[in-house]
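Changelog entry

Holo records now carry the ligand SMILES as an explicit input line rather than a separate metadata file. Below, a converted record for S-adenosylmethionine, shown in the new format.
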Amino acid sequence: MNHFLELVERTLKPLANQYVPEGSTPEAVIHQWVHAIAQNRPLYAAQRGVDAQQIINALKVAGAYEQESHFKAALTQHLPIKPPTHGGFSFIDLFAGIGGMRIGFQQAGGTCVFSSEFEKNAQETYFSNHGDFPFGDITKIPVEDIPDHDVLIGGFPCQPFSHAGLKLGIGDTRGTLFHNIAKIIEMKRPKVALLENVKGLISHDKGYTLQVILRTLTSIGYSCNIDRKIIASGTPKQLQDEAKKMVLRSVDFGVPQNRQRIYIVLWQDGLTEKFEYPLPTHSTTRVGDILEESPDEKYTISDRLWDGHQRRKENNKVNGKGFGFGIVNSESPYTNTISARYYKDGSEILIEQEGKNPRKLTPREAANLQGFPREFIYSKSNVQAYKQFGNSVSVPVIKALSKSIFEQFLRNHDESASKP
Ligand SMILES: C[S@@+](CC[C@H](N)C(=O)[O-])C[C@H]1O[C@@H](n2cnc3c(N)ncnc32)[C@H](O)[C@@H]1O
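Structure line, unchanged by the conversion:
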């Protein structure tokens, strides 16, 4: 860490300690404050009287703030992933992982004003790249302390809801992570929310999970592309057919990966009738484009692993069970989806090699496959790097979505939600 940030942290720690939620660190509070000040955005816990001038005064006394422009430059000059310098819209990054969604939103001009992620290794990768240590467990954060924002983004873990005696209001989702998202939306009222999830959400619990999510959000004044009547009383099949239109494939946005995810875009009732999802770019993709020139030999899989993969594939064929491993070469148009378990045996994506066993992707190639910029610093632990990229998003898909969100909801609209 650089001296400047050390000085800032030392100076603000006593004040920050008063506002740290359970499960978060003072650094999360401090980083939110200083980035918000540099970007003229709302501060964490502003409702409880935290004030930009009070913080600037403390930093001035400590010699960490002379001029606004120097302060801004000192905060961002060493960052691999830089925030936009001015204007734009604000967003919060929930279930943030390593900030793949954040990168896509920043590329479309958005400024992140709050982030939450509770896994320690992901938090560290997030900090190395964005200079912002995320807040921890979202269930422990007082909603009123979260700064106002235009867009809420979150790729939340999919959990079943109780079936018992439901009125299908927000109270019925209690005890799930979705409940925390819904509470933030209800209280902070962002213009737009983008919820990302696995495609399996559509059929999860026979469509009931998706129905509860959409009914809850409709009940608090948000709309999406699915007609309210279908959400309230349509058949599961009708709801699922509509939800499938919210699925985007990474390979359609320029990265050679067959990742399919549902992206639910919701907006405050009345802002628009329909959201136009971004259209495929129709660029040709080739696995060779994300591969490194001369990867280390250690990525070639052992005879034992390769035999195991082949044996399982044979058995699966006989039992009519799935396909087993996936193998591609540099001319293939795309790979299977990289998942968080890729580090285990690499079975979903193996790269053919002449005259030897296939190999796994290197962490750099996993980053490329998700469309992360070259400057992105990934974890030094390969296991963590694969897990983090597998859990993350394809950045170009998020960039396309955030551009569409900006153009349809935020450009030329009143920007009051972004101001402190
Ligand atoms: C599918 S990942 C999202 C990754 C992210 N979109 C990215 O680009 O890296 C979901 C993340 O939610 C985090 N998470 C789960 N429960 C949480 C909680 N209660 N509070 C904060 N983060 C949580 C997990 O640690 C995981 O990193």
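Spot-checked after migration. The radius of gyration is 23 Å. The pocket of S-adenosylmethionine is lined by residues 95-98, 100-101, 116-119, 122, 137-139, 155, 157, 177, 391-393 (CB under 6 Å).
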